[in-house]
Automatic annotation (TrEMBL):
It comes from the Bacteria. This is alpha-L-fucosidase. The keyword S-adenosyl-L-methionine does not apply. One of its GO terms (biological process) is fucose metabolic process. One of its GO terms (cellular component) is lysosome. Pfam families: Alpha_L_fucos, F5_F8_type_C. SMART domains: Alpha_L_fucos. Its EC number is 3.2.1.51. Residues 358-509 form the F5/8 type C domain. It comes from Prevotella jejuni. Belongs to the glycosyl hydrolase 29 family. GO terms for molecular function: alpha-L-fucosidase activity.
């Protein structure tokens, strides 16, 4: 039984509202069931639920990827592992702080720096291999430690940070053996985890094994990635160094959304399966999966490649906004790649486009009209000793307070009313997923006269919500802004759920 599974089972046992005990006499086994006290009248969780670190990670929502390294200088997407360390020759001093400032202006809350890609060249002076930045003769590489600079800058800017470290290594002569895993790869991950105990994610891509120049020998090595990297051990040892790191992909704490085009399914569960085929259902998750495995969309802000090239060109702000709606707005996080160029900085075209996008995001989500509305729920759970489940919890901009319907009520409406009509374009919904993802079907309606209700966003599948769902009310993610709708009230009708709905926030823009 793996640790993660055991953890899930233990949590389930600890939280379950009924405790079952067997009488001591083994011949007459009687079953006694007692109801655990619940002074706060909290709704029962619907399993699976996120771990604390997954919950924190989901709240990061939108962050950057920085593909930078040997490939930036040799015009490759996958360096072969035989490039000279001297080819890594920045034309200026690399400046990770500048990368982070640029993406912060776009509304991103953090970033992940690629510090080792498949070519194996490490951007920090690692003890695990000589194939690293300290062996480049370039004056702008001498004494430079990208991992350290990146971590420091992120901490100063109060941003989340982490590293991409490729398990596949086309340079290392030990690749394919156990000692590569123990003495090279795990060591590298541990060195990186020590650059900050407050990291939020470590990224392991899925490309694994194939041809390369392993120890200088041009050959092909295949491994079985489901067992080769000793993942349970990797996960435990990294969590000891940096407890909030989500180990992505092979690490089993967040899932690949299944495409690199920047979209998640409109129906998207955080639930997945393990040990039951199919284990991964990328874009959509698995409604009754037993394992919490939220989606992350990795996508490119510039085309064509992940690494900078002369051809790199950023997307328009409107296209970026569409991508945001189709990922963050569909219960997935978005990690958007902004590649530094050969100067070790983000080029001006990216910097200004990021700024433009940041302004767009801010202006479109500026005034949360839900806060000035009165809100009513057709069913509200009775409050506990100190906790209230009132609908007002939905508009307090506090992710830890939530509204809940009464037990067994799965069909419920939430109505937000204003004294004067408001122009509305987006509705944002959030379940309190710490108690599980529950909602299966809902609709959004509006009224101008206060009595006739009309549906909104007909073309959008109004199925799952999850951590966050953003509904463009005109039904179009590509052209979502439009002229809006004049509404005196908005009604969210939850039509079906796995158990009584439990939601933390509603926002209207
Ligand atoms: C993939 C890699 O092979 C690509 O080069 C890139 O790093 C992407 C984000 O992950 O697995
Ligand atoms: Ca709240």
């Amino acid at each position: 039984m793996n640790n993660r599974f055991l953890h899930g089972v233990l949590t389930a046992l600890a939280l379950t509202a009924t405790a079952t005990s067997f009488a001591q006499n083994p011949t007459v086994m009687t079953l006694q069931t007692q109801v655990a006290p619940n002074p706060e009248n909290e709704p029962r969780p619907v399993f699976p639920v996120p771990s604390d670190r997954q919950w924190q990670w989901q709240q990061t929502e939108f962050y950057a990827f920085f593909h930078y390294g040997m490939n930036t200088y040799v015009n490759e997407e996958w360096g072969k592992g035989n490039e000279s360390p001297n080819s890594f020759a920045p034309t200026e001093k690399p400046d990770p702080r500048q990368w982070l400032e640029a993406v912060q202006a776009a509304g991103m809350k953090g970033g992940i720096a690629v510090v080792k890609h498949h070519d194996g060249f490490c951007l920090w002076p690692t003890a695990s291999t000589d194939y690293n930045i300290s062996h480049s003769s370039s004056p702008n590489a001498q004494g430079v430690n990208i991992a350290e600079l990146f971590a420091k800058a992120a901490q100063e800017l109060h941003m989340k940070y982490g590293f991409y470290v490729s398990p596949w290594d086309r340079n290392n002569g030990q690749y394919g053996t156990d000692s590569y895993v123990k003495d090279v790869f795990l060591k590298q991950c541990a060195e990186l985890a020590k650059y900050g105990s407050d990291q939020f994610e470590m990224w392991f891509d899925g490309a694994n094994g194939g041809d390369g120049y392993y120890g200088g020998k041009n050959t092909t090595i295949h491994i079985d990635r489901s067992t080769y990297y000793d993942v349970p051990n990797l996960r435990d040892s990294i969590h000891k160094l940096s407890p909030n790191i989500i180990l992505w992909g092979v690490g089993g704490e967040a899932r690949w959304i299944g495409n690199e085009d920047g979209w998640a399914g409109e129906t998207n569960w955080c639930n997945e399966n393990r040990g039951v085929a199919p284990e991964r259902n990328g874009m959509y998750g698995t409604e009754n999966g037993w394992f919490w495995l939220p989606g992350e969309s990795d996508a490119k802000f510039t085309n064509p490649g992940w690494f900078w090239s002369q051809k790199s060109k950023p997307m328009t702000a409107e296209r970026t906004f569409q991508m945001y709606l189709e990922t963050v707005g569909r219960n997935s996080t978005l990690i958007l790649n902004c590649p530094p160029d050969r100067s070790g900085k983000l080029p001006q075209d990216q910097v200004s486009r990021l700024k433009e996008f940041g302004k767009m995001l801010k202006s479109r989500f500026q005034t949360n009209l839900a806060k000035s509305a009165t809100i009513e729920a057709s069913s509200t759970r009775a409050h506990g000793a100190t906790r209230s489940y009132a609908a007002n919890n939905l508009i307090d901009e506090n992710p830890d307070t939530y509204w809940a319907a009464e037990d067994d009520v799965k069909d419920v409406t939430l109505t937000l009313k204003w004294n004067n009509p408001q122009t509305v374009r987006y509705v944002t919904l959030q379940e309190y997923v710490r108690l599980g993802q529950r909602v299966k079907s809902f609709s959004v309606e509006y009224t101008t006269d206060g009595s006739t209700w009309k549906p909104l966003a007909n073309k959008v599948k109004q199925t799952t919500i999850g951590y966050k769902r953003i509904i463009p009310l005109n039904g179009s993610t590509a052209n979502s802004y439009g002229s809006g709708y004049e509404a005196r009230a908005i009604r969210i009708h939850i039509k079906d759920a796995k158990a009584c709905p439990v939601m933390s926030e509603i926002a209207i823009y």
